[in-house]
Inverse folding.
């Protein structure tokens, strides 16, 4: 079975995810019986909310909120977006596109195109601007839910330890 046929059989696993699994050597192409068995298990797990919720709990609340709000963003894009969003633990400051580009070179050893950094910066600015509601509402709602969930878990753990 080839990867394109596997997409229809093993939903909700996307073609992009399958291709990456093949690129990283986790699956072979064409898919053999063992690969198909793995995909059937993975498909079952990803179509059950309980498993997905449990796996997502391993991420920090702010990262989880960004992953849910921007599922197409990878690690680098989320890093760029976070560079332009305020953090409750640091003072507000402006970060230039050049500075973010320099950080990406220094920490991730990549040359990320500045026009893409500007696009992500604009998404961050739209989220923070009250007149541009959708991204901001989505991010703030997800962040609030994550914070509430975190606080509830902390309260329960503190009560148990007393």
């Amino acid at each position: 079975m080839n990867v394109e046929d596997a997409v229809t059989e093993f939903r909700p696993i996307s073609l992009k995810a399958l291709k990456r699994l093949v690129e990283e050597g986790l699956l072979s192409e064409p898919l053999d019986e063992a690969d198909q068995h793995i995909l059937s298990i993975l498909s079952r797990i990803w179509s059950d909310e309980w498993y997905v919720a449990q796996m997502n709990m391993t991420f920090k609340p702010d990262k989880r909120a960004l992953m849910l709000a921007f599922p197409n963003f990878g690690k680098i894009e989320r890093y760029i977006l976070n560079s332009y969003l305020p953090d409750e633990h640091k003072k507000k400051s402006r970060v230039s596109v050049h500075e973010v580009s320099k950080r990406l070179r220094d920490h991730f050893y990549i040359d990320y195109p500045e026009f893409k950094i500007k696009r992500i910066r604009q998404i961050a600015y739209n989220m923070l601007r009250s007149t541009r509601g959708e991204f901001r509402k989505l991010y703030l709602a997800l962040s609030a839910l994550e914070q509430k969930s975190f606080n509830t878990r902390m309260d329960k753990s503190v009560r148990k330890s007393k």
About this structure: The two ends are 56 Å apart (CA to CA). Residues 123 and 135 are 8 Å apart (CA to CA). Residues 59-161 form one domain.
